[in-house]
Predict the 3D structure of the following.
Amino acid sequence: MIALIVLLMAVVLFLLAGQLGVIWFHLWTHALRAALACMLLVTSSAHWGKRRRDLIAMVPQSLPNPGLIVTITGVLEIAGAVGLILNATHRVAGLLLALLFILMFPANVRAAKEHLTIGGRPVLGVVVRGGIQIVYIAAALLCAL
C-alpha cells in the first residue's frame, strides 16, 4: 500500500510542480513517469533491506533460487525507474515494467494465500492486490506513450 501512496502523492506533486512552472512537468506523462520512477525506487529498496526475507518467502516455490530472483527484480525496478526518466528509453521501460508487474503478480498471490507478512504487516488480499497491480500496469503502459 505504501508504494501506491507514493505513486499517487508523487504524481500529484509533480503535476503541481508543472502548474508552478517546472517545464518538464508540464506534460502529465512526464509527471507520471517521474512518479512511477519514485515508486520503483521505494519498492526496490526492500529487495536489500529488512524486508528482503519477506520478499524471498513470496517467490513461488516452483521457481529456483528465490534470493537471486528478488535481487534481479530489484535491479530491474531500479533500471526501469532510470529508463522512465530518459526520453530515449521511456517507451521500452514502460512496456517492460508492465510485463515485470505481470510476472511478479504470482508472488503476491502466494503471499496472500499463505497469509505472509512484509515488514511484520499482513499482505493485502488477492483481490485488493490485483486491483493495485492493475493500477501499476496501467501506469507503466501510460508511461510508454
